[in-house]
Design brief:
Layout (H helix, E strand, L loop, with lengths): L9 H23 L2 H29 L3 H29 L4 H8 L1 H16 L3
Helix pairs in contact: 1-2, 1-5, 2-3, 2-4
Length: 127
């Protein structure tokens, strides 16, 4: 079954692909390396996906507001997202329960998925 990827379902494809990649990499890290690597991948992947969804929601709201209101809203949400992510990463790194390498792999899940989708689209289009 071939799924057509277009602008309407691109966000859903990225999220579903990223969730699948996080699940696969978490299991691989847990079984091939250690519990800490698996947990690091899981934590990093969850943070990356939540950040991606958060950014999309902020952008959708900003595009529907008046220009002056949109700027303040976007700035406040950016600072809030950055602060929450920074605090979360600080506690994850200092806890000792998570592997830093696994965390970095997990944080890269969205990028890996977007690159894979880009290559897939280019190859499918004959490029």
């Amino acid at each position: 079954m071939m799924i057509t990827i277009n602008e309407d379902n691109l966000f859903a494809v990225i999220i579903k692909g990223s969730l699948g990649l996080v699940a696969f990499l978490t299991l691989a890290g847990w079984t091939l390396f250690s519990r800490q690597v698996g947990l690091g991948v899981l934590a990093g992947g969850c943070i990356a996906i939540v950040n991606f969804v958060w950014i999309r929601n902020v952008l959708q709201r900003v595009l529907g507001q008046l220009p002056a209101k949109a700027t303040a809203y976007a700035q406040l949400r950016f600072i809030a997202r950055l602060s929450v992510t920074g605090l979360l990463l600080y506690f994850i790194i200092t806890s000792g329960w998570f592997s830093l390498a696994g965390l970095l792999v997990g944080l890269s899940v969205i990028v890996i998925n977007i690159i894979a989708l880009s290559l897939y689209s280019a190859l499918r289009a004959g490029g």
